[in-house]
Amino acid sequence: MNEAGRKYIFYGITLVIGLVLVFRLVQLQLFNQSVYGKESMSNSTKTITVVPPRGLMFDRNGKVVVDNRPSYSVMITKSQFDTNQISEVAGFLQMEAQEIRDILKEVKGTNRFNPTRIKRDVEFPVISYISENENRLIGVDYQVEAERFYPNDFSASHVFGYTKEISEKQLKNQVGDYYKQGDIIGIKGIEKVYETYLRGEKGYNFIAVDVKGKEMGSVNDGRDDIAPVSGSDLHLSLDSKLQAYAEELMKNYKGAIIAMDPRNGEILCMVSKPDFDLGIFSGPTDKKVLSDLTTDPGKPLFNRATMTNYPPGSTWKMMMGLAGMGSGEITPTSTIVCGGSFTYGNKTFGDHGSYGAINIVKALEKSSNVFFYKLVLQLGLDNYHKYGTILGFGQKTGIDISDELPGRLPSEDYYNKVYGAGKWTKGYIVSLGIGQGELGVTPIQMVAHTSSIAMNGLYWQPHFVRKIVNSTTGEDETPQFNSRQIDLPLEYFEAVKKGMYLVVNGTGTATNIKNKDYLLAGKTGTAQNPHGNNHSWFVGFAPFDDPQIAIVVMGEGAGWGASFGAPVGGALMVRYLSGHSMDVFDPDSGNLMQVRD
Amino acid sequence: MKEFFKRFDILLLLTTVAIVTIGIFAIYSATFTTEDGGSDLYSKQLIFAIVGFVLMIVINYIPPKYLSNTSYIIYALAIILLIAVLFFGKKISGQRSWFAIGTFGIQPSEFAKLATIMALGRFFAAEDKERDIRNPKTFLIAAAIVLLPVVLIMRQPDMGTVLVFIAMIIPIFFWAGLSTFVIFAIVSPVIVALCSFFGVYYMIGALALVAVVLYVWFRQRWILGLVILTVNLIAGLSVDYVYDKLQPYQQRRIMAVFDPTTDPLGSGYNVIQSKVAIGSGGFTGKGYLEGTQTQLKFIPEQWTDFIFCMVGEEFGFIGACVLLILYFIIIFQLINSAYFAKNKFLSICCIGFATVFLFHLFVNIGMTMGIMPVIGIPLPLVSYGVSSLLSFMLMLGIGMNAYRNRKLYM
User: Fold this and answer.
1) I want to staple B274 with a disulfide (CB 3.0 to 4.6 A). Which of A2, A411, B181, B368 is the partner?
2) In this structure, are A87 and A199 located in the same domain?
3) pTM
4) How many Å apart are CA B410 and CA B406, to the nearest integer?
5) Counting Cβ atoms within 10 Å, is residue A580 exposed (0-12), middle (13-18) or buried (19+)?
């Protein structure tokens, strides 16, 4: 190859390399400028997140029941922080240096440039120390946030629920990317279900930072800042006084009380005992206290009002009556002969007494067992399951607090699954007729059911929230809940209601709570408990001719329905209707203080 | 006057001055927010740029014979310095490549590039006997001239500079008259090895291409051709083996070229940040001293190896292209001088300098734009560094000399 040829080879290679570089420049600077521009912007900008105050909750009378109070958090921006100061910081925060190191170790990627929460609920003197030394403690900062405060003489812990710092798992599984490490999120109860309303929307201030991360002022004079939207306030149907009273009634018992306005599904009070102090979860939670709570044999974190799966005992008999009439097996006036006991196959089922030929009204008043043994066998499991479903059992009611279970409404499939097809007989289902056996219900199902009876078949989705009000936007939203009319003739409901009326006002099982001022109706129940004392049930509504309140009382291991459930339920209804204290039941002695009139 | 310009490479000089000036502005921008005394780096660079400018003019007027005659002495001095730095050099991040003299650092390997090229030029341009690179003995001696400093620099170790030396061998030998067949025999295994890095199909493709070239142009030497093909095959297959033998950090650096996000806080960090800097500059740049990436120091080594980021970010596509064009003027001018110079010593020197410029340019700018591995070699005339600046300016002084004396045989 001659000299000129060699020269052109050099020219060629040089040209190719030049073109490669220019093409790459075009690619980076002309085609992808916007992408890299954004990245460089986020590099040099510190984003300050402004967490809005969480929405408050008010009771039905406008009293604040869930409030906020200020709490100080100490933050560290990893990219600026001098790790030599870690022991000093650990000192005034009363933490181990290693704990801080562990927190900072988790901070990765661009999070280095944002403040990370090191400790919540720091005392004010620590905050003033940090601000006095801000020039020296670079990257150490604090943030004022609101934490929950409950100005109440009751706890309603399962109703309100609580908030906690978001867990790593929740962060990973979240839809979208709203939540960041260290954010507060509703974990239980109303706090969880209405999280998106209560939290509001975080705001962001963009601050230019220099080499060492020192703040130089707002980016673009703050025009790019995004203002936070404060959380919406919730107006609840909860009646503080009734809630406090109900908790007082239950204070020595395990179990649940729910009161509901049958006309619209609003929950007036909901108690699950034992309960816990919600204050434990505001601010940093002591690990010891938390583990005591979770290991407590009384299971205080468990919401008995929506999650138990006990048989309802005789409070089930209204459902049986409605199913019997609905399926045409009985009419409001047809009778079934009730001897003192009932034998099916080689097993005999007992009863409280022998009533002869009685109709559904009398059967309810007397709580006859034989009537319902016979009825359930006539009805068959298919109808049993069908009408149970129509009346709202075996499914969640959809109440607007978290953690509800559907109970258990046995069907043929269920028995085939548990015992195997063909390996069970009709004898298995006899006890289902009186609300025993494999049937399981939740108190919230029972109160919604009782309400629907009181309202002649109008079934409301039980709920707490009446109105959602946003103070920033001024928006005012009324959440919509479901209601449906159960498709059964009015006379069936009338018959069942009459039975419930006579339970209290005739010669039934709860005449001990008959009241001269208010016509109460109800039904007692005693659920067999293989693990100990029977569970005491009572469902009721009042006033009989103009229902304004429906209640359920479930006392775990509290014995007969008539001895615990009925007096407590009666006391509650009278208290609500009279609007003032009328202590018919002494929670300390368990005695009825005012019997009849 | 006309005669003066005919014999004075004013284009090369002005281009050099322009690039050096851009460099000083770039260093100022890249360091002026530094609080630890870094802000006077630009003035040091300015002082040595003036020194370099004077030296360029002086060298321009030195008779080529003197330059040629002192080449071996300069080469010997460079070798002695390279040995000395291994013993007396200052250790900075694991490398012993600097002499600390007061506040300055002298890096012998930068001068060794110049000295080695001059020595090669002197070797091929020997007056007493005909030196034919096709003679194996000549080839080996010439190779040894390059490999001696390579071995010493590997001891520092400074792999980036080693690569510069390796890269200059083939172009210079080619210019000196090495046959295309031998060049092909040496270069093709390297290309096959590079291809096989991307996967086995690339390797097969490259091998097929080699076979085709061998058959079409070198068919008459078919035995040798088969040997070359075998060597190519071995080179291709040994890549995985060699890759496994590399230190993990070296492997990461290579991988990070293809995907910087695999190592975002390690070797990929510089590349990610420098791409952001250059990319965010856009067409016109963010303006002098307005580059957030540069001013907030998101890029380590931004006044030395990564200084192109500052140019790309603050001066944008226009600024970066202007700088590139200036560089290519220098390289083409050097190639032309090499072609037109009757003096073989000057011719070899110019082609060597052109190669070094091109290699530095491609690797350094390619690295900041994420198409080359992170190899620590400076951007010629722009990166801060007294040794590198002076060494490159001396090269261009000889380049001017070659232009001035292009009609001179001796």
Assistant:
1) B368
2) yes
3) 0.60
4) 10
5) exposed
